[in-house]
Amino acid sequence: MGPSLNRILLYAKDVQKTCEFYERHFGFTCELDDDGRIAELVAPHGGIKIMVHKAGKGVKSGQACIKLVFDVQDVESFKEQCTKRGLEFGAIHQASGYSFANAKDPDNNSISISRRAFAARQ
Predict the structure, then answer these.
(1) Which residue among 55, 67, 98, 115 is buried most deeply as judged by most CB within 10 Å?
(2) CATH class of 1-56
(3) Is the whole model's pTM more than 0.85, yes or no?
């Protein structure tokens, strides 16, 4: 059996604030490990887990080249729901058969909502 990707680790200035962001806007549940050093965010409908670790002094916000992409069936509707809860996404972009919009989390990491997973493949 080969390796599989099941977790992404984000470094955060404020672990609690970052966890609350993903709980509020994407429905994740936060679970702390036994020593409280790493929080694990579990998606409500399965999928990859996001581990959140306190950033060291030398880590600059948003310096890593990463974007978390959340699959949603209706980008416009999800964007409107997020706006009501205080998360502003940019313009909705149209790509080859799907749409997406971008935003940033509290630590300036790039996030996106995308319909790509639901687009008809040719």
Answers:
(1) 115
(2) alpha beta
(3) no
